[in-house]
Amino acid sequence: MILAASDRAESFTQFLTVILVFVLVLVLTYLTTRFVGNYQKTKAATRNFDVIETYRITNGKYLQIVRIGSRYVVIGIGKDDITSICELSEEDIRLVPDDSGQVMDFKALLEKAGQRFGKGNKENEK
Fold it and tell me: What are the residues facing 58 on neighbouring strands?
């Protein structure tokens, strides 16, 4: 079956319309993503809560150091609950700047907290 010239022109026009709509949707998606990203970034910068570091213990269980205002708190996060473990002073936290903001040595901090809170309480119980 051979298409007439008018049929080919109509098919070509439909093809160009589909391509144009596709490009328009891509541009709108890009602009919307940039707008939402910038909005979230400025909104997060003005908040008093900041997750400094997260340490995964097992599946579904994490330790997090969270800055709330000017205080630092270690919390344990489970599947269905959140538990406050201890409060840290700013001197207890070693912040190492990198590309994404601030990161600290959580392993050393966890060992220090374990010595201060965990092991000391067990020795007193004996």
Answer: 61
Question: Which residue type is seen at 12?
Answer: F
Chain-centroid distance of CA 46 in Å reads 16
pTM attached to this predicted model: 0.44
- Residues found in the chain: 126
- Characterize 15-30 residue by residue with b for buried, 16 or more Cβ atoms within 10 angstroms of its Cβ, and e for exposed: eeeeeeeeeeeeeeee
What pLDDT, in 10s, does the model give residues 69-88?
A: 888 999 999 989 999 999 98
Name 53's Cβ contacts closer than 8 Å, sequence gap at least 6. 64, 65, 103, 104, 106
Domain boundaries, the chain: 1-46, 49-125
Q: In angstroms, rounded to a whole number, what is the distance separating the alpha carbons of residues 78 and 20?
A: 49
